[in-house]
Amino acid sequence: MKNEQGRAILEVRGLTANVAGVPILKGMDLTVREGEIHAIMGPNGSGKSTFAKVLAGHPAYEITGGTVRFEGKDLLGIEPEERARAGIFLGFQYPVEIPGVSNSAFLRLAYNTVQGARGKEELDPLEFDDFIREKMKLLDMDPAFLERSVNEGFSGGEKKRNEILQLATLEPKLSILDETDSGLDIDALRVVANGVNSLLRPDNAFVLVTHYQRLLNYIVPDYVHVMEGGRLIKTGGKELALELESRGYDWVVEEDRANTSGRAAAAATTAA
Amino acid sequence: MTTAVHPYIDALLTGTRELPGTPYAWLNERRGAALERANALSVPTTRDEEWRFTDLAPLTRLQLRGAAGAATVGAEAIRPYVMPEAGARLVFVDGIFAPALSITGADSDNARVAPLAEALKSHAGALEPHLARLAGFEKNVFVALNTAHLRDAAVVIVRENTACGKPVHVLHLSTQPGTASYPRCIVVLESGAACTVVEEYQAISPDAYFTNSVTEVAVAPNARLHHVKLQAENGRAFHIATCAVSIARDASYTTQAISLGARLSRYDLNVALNGEGAFSQIDGLALISERQLADTHTLIDHAFPNGRSVQLHKTIVGGAAHAVFNGKIFVRPGAQLTDSSQQSRNLLLSDKATVDTKPQLEIFADDVKCAHGATVGQLDADQLFYLRSRGLPEQAARNLLTYAFGASVIERIPVKSMVQRLERVVMAQTGAEA
After folding, report:
1. Which residue range forms the structural domain that includes residue B429?
2. According to the model, what pLDDT value does residue A181 have?
């Protein structure tokens, strides 16, 4: 739900970032408040995934300017693990396989680390097993996944479910789901979406990064943003996603170009 | 009586000339021939291509003698290594069979698990084509030494079209300091047979000793062997082992060879795909630290068409330790449609750790697929970020990934209790918690 008077969880201002010396983010601005669902859409290469990874603290990206505040505190100065413990969760576009580490051990380690950091009670393996099986029911996951290595040999859909399972386990304040819908068939999409919908609370928020409108049939966003050239160029409601689906992105880009050059012309006139 | 050209070899051969003959002329002959070769051969030096990185000088400075009879070892000594899954267990103490610690009775209809002297009485015919023959001693002084000492051995014979449902455990325990022991194991799978054999080396002595072992494996058509080798000698020990494997038509040989212990270890694994459609999977893991050296040389010999081999060799090297891997793939003329892949993956945990890895492909057939790759390096950056993004501190994430790097080989071992035991060892050594 739109929550214009609510507390801001995330405030991004003028964020710029490079990868390998190449600017990718060129002035991102975004405010996410409690209880809100935001969708960031945009053509390939617009910087959507980079933005998601920068929020989670991926070391490959160099921040060159701007600020990010999470629950009022500076986010950019802290390590990825501290961000996770503070309540940021990134659902990966390509969840990483870790052969040799069982999913159950991984989930419990992550859970206990985050719980410990929040001053909450940790669970021993038996208690955790009960806890995690409940969460798996929510996502229609076979408990056999607990015994397998993290994501190893999982299908695309299984990997994404496993991401949402981690989300459900860690109970973050802000979940950023990077192309969670890619590689999902319609049944898996429905399961994942139901999972997300059931996890939304008045005091947390979601940012969905997606190329297609499809996911937004199941998870209804309060805001739809269009990203292009490393910044947001348009913001609307859920109906914007449908319009993008039928008309593509070109018209938004054109509109933005006209606005930008209009502003530039106005600025030039003022200067003269 | 002859004298060895090399005084060190001569000392190691003390006693072999007085070994009592066996009732089997062919065995006496092979032993005699091996003694002759041992007399003629020298201890390899780093000038030998096959021993470039592995200096045996510290071994030659060690005063060694044969085991002074069977040591008395109680059941409590082997308790940490007992595998509840095993159907049979043969225990050798300082190379000498220990009947009181062994269980040979189970699965008697399908398999014969026995010490050599007993096995020969009923199965000399099955052993004769392979024993002291698969592992060539013409050029290898350590195989020659072992064969010259051949008296005891662990024998596993699995009958045609049967499976020994439970794994067979062959446990070698070193107890007496300053001894040289010569363990031998021979595994014969008749056609269509299936079995899992675990060959394990442990020590309860903290002092230096020398294990010089030979394993021979014959897998008949359509048979399947899973062979686990665990080398967990003490940190002062020397372990030099050769395993020679012959795989017949449509048969398969799968192995995990884990090296944890010994100041210096060397494993020569020679696998011959001796029939059409033969398959081998060879996994190796060396986890070493301090000043340990672990050297693995493998030879996979594709001699017939349609053979397939998959190899993954991993090392985790800490401290000032040194891992060596030489992986030779040989594809003979006529071994068309051979499909082989070899991966060497190495993790260095400190600045002083070193690894020498060398793929060696010699291909004499034109319609084959041979892939190989080697990496020496750091942990995977994507995996590291993934774990950190879930709240794990960087060091804990690194430890866990190091553990996982090893555990992914260990979990291929088909004996659960052993997997758990090894996971604990790797966890302790990598500082991982899970």
Report:
1. 379-434
2. 87
